[in-house]
Every structure is written in C-alpha cells, then in structure tokens.
Amino acid sequence: xxxxxxxxxxxxxxxxxxxxxxxxxxxxxxxxxxxxxxxxxxxxxxxxxxxxxxxxxxxxxxxxxxxxxxxxxxxxxxxxxxxxxxxxxxxxxxxxxxxxxxxxxxxxxxxxxxxxxxxxxxxxxxxxxxxxxxxxxxxxxxxxxxxxxxxxxxxxxxxxxxxxxxxxxxxxxxxxxxxxx
Amino acid sequence: xxxxxxxxxxxxxxxxxxxxxxxxxxxxxxxxxxxxxxxxxxxxxxxxxxxxxxxxxxxxxxxxxxxxxxxxxxxxxxxxxxxxxxxxxxxxxxxxxxxxxxxxxxxxxxxxxxxxxxxxxxxxxxxxxxxxxxxxxxxxxxxxxxxxxxxxxxxxxxxxxxxxxxxxxxxxxxxxxxxxxxxxxxxxxxxxxxxxxxxxxxxxxxxxxxxxxxxxx
Lengths: 181, 217
Description:
The structure holds two protein chains of two kinds.
Chain A: H1 6-17, H2 23-35, H3 37-63, H4 71-88, H5 91-94, H6 96-116, H7 126-133, H8 142-153, H9 172-175
Chain B: H1 24-28, H2 31-39, H3 43-65, H4 68-84, H5 95-113, H6 122-126, H7 140-155, H8 159-170, H9 175-182, H10 186-216
Helix pairs in contact in B: 2-3, 3-4, 3-5, 4-5, 5-9, 8-10, 9-10
C-alpha cells in the first residue's frame, strides 16, 4: 500500500472520525495514524468536536415533546382548496354566456322591429328606395333611415334628435358621410 | 398560515384519523404506494406520509430556524407544497429525500430573507462566566448551555457546509441521503462534510482559546 501524506490524511480525518470513510482510504488513514502524532492530535480534536455536535443532536431529541400533528390543519387546507374551486368563479359567471346570447338576440329583435316598423311592405332598402323613388333627397344610410323612421314615430322629436322628420328639408352636410381625409 | 392543530373539519374524502386508526395496510405501505394512492385522491394515504415524516421534518427545520413554531409552519408549508406537486413526483425515486429537500429549501429561503448577523452572540446571552466545556457534562442545565454554544458555533459556518453538517451529524442522515436531499453528488457532500467538520473544530478551538484568555485576564 503506498505511503500517504499528512496533508491528504488531514483532509480525510474529518470523515474518518464520523465513520464516513470506508475501504482502502480508511485503512490508509489508520496506518498513517499509527506513526503520525500530529494527525493523531488532529483526530482527537475532531472526535471531540463530533461529540459536541452529538450533544446538540441528543439535546434536541430529548427536549422535544410529542407535538400535535400537522395533519388536521393540512386536512383542513386540502378540504378548503377543494371546495374553493367552485366559489373561485363568481356565480354570475355561470350565466354570462347565456345572458350574452339572450342580450344579443334581444337587441337583434329590437333593431329589426324598430327598423321594420315605419316601412311600408313594398319599400325596399332605404338607400335604394331613396335613390330610386326620391331622387331629390340626398342619399341616406340605413342608420339614418332608421333614425328618420324613429323620428317619424316620436311624439316629441325635437328635443333629442338632430334630424327632423322625413318631410322636412335636411342640410346635406349633416347627412352625408364625411369623406375621409 | 398557522391553523388550529385539531380543528374539526369533516369532508367526504378528508380523513383526520391517524393511519393506525385505519387500515394497517396504509400504515405499513411503502412511500411510493402511498404517493400513488394520494395522487388518486386518497387522503388517508397522504395522512400516513405526514404522520410518518412530520416529527423528523419539524426537527430538521428547527435546526435551521431555531424556532419550533416557525419550524411547524415551514413543515406544514412543505407538506402543502409536496401535496400540490405529487403529480410531478417520480415514484421510482425516494419520497423522503424529496420531502426534506423541499423543506430544507424553504428553511434556507427563510434564512436568506432574514439577516443572519441579527443572531445575538451566545456570549451576550450567557455571559463570560460560562465555563469552557471540554467534554459533555452530565448536568442537564449545563448540557443545555453547551448545546446553545455548539449551536452558536454552527451558525458561523457558511450555509452550504452547515446544511450538510446539520443533516449528517445532527440528524443522522447517511451521506447518500444528504446527497439526495441537497441534490448534489455524494462526493460533493462528503467533501463539504469534511470541510464543515473541520471548520466547526477550528471555530470551537478558537472560542476555547478566547475563553481561556478572558478567564486569565
């Protein structure tokens, strides 16, 4: 077995004192200790240090009484997390999509009803009809046509509508869509 | 996060009974099987893991944070984290080291957030009249004081080495187990262990030299 240096032995002694050195390395260190007083001194100090560490280890295990288990609190945590899932989403979210659909449908029906009410059965699309049957009037958009129809049916249309009833002349600037610059 | 220790909660799948109160199979089952069952929603299996490891985990965490209540909180946080990560756990590996790794990391994170220099000197607490201890004294009161001083010296060791020392020499994990907990190679752990033991010896000898000087002055 080759001779080992003190320097190497000193790096291994902390493991040797704790029984963490095995096999050939352990035997090498033990052979070295037989003839090296310096390393034997270091071994004694290290053994003493380890004894002190074991004092602390035993102290903690002796003083610690049996504490209550963590499981009840953990079980509660698990239980709450499972039951928190449905409440995480507000109740109204359950009805969000149906309500959106219903609202859209209601709007559609209302707009159809509103835009269809003043029209005579024979009248075609507003733009087409205006252009073809009333060449004197400027072209109107469907929105304007429907607002005109609304105005026609209002009891008091002056307060909230910028447009006058259909028979009145309307300034062309307020009706025509502005050309984009 | 702290909750009443024995708060009564009853859920359809949440059992508060100890595994020993239930089936002995759960108590005797291996960790891997308990993890599989816990994944399947069997709370009794996770309870068995908690009962199996909680005391050791709290003790290990106490070594780092030196506060029993804080250690309990960290242990509960550890189990909660582990419970939520059960699906990602490889049952071919060992559950214990994984659990302790999560716990030790939480404890080290806690230590990083707090100033380690805030730890008061043991000499400030015990006074200079405290005798030097060469060997463990059978008197329990002196043993407590000695343990405090040992703990104070351990605190001076850098955390990378201290962690290994605590797990190996105070908690008795094998080198292989420590390697699994800190997620390092066993050779690295052994090297750090040797350094840590040597540092502890140097610090202790230095402290003894200082006490001798104080007593002679």
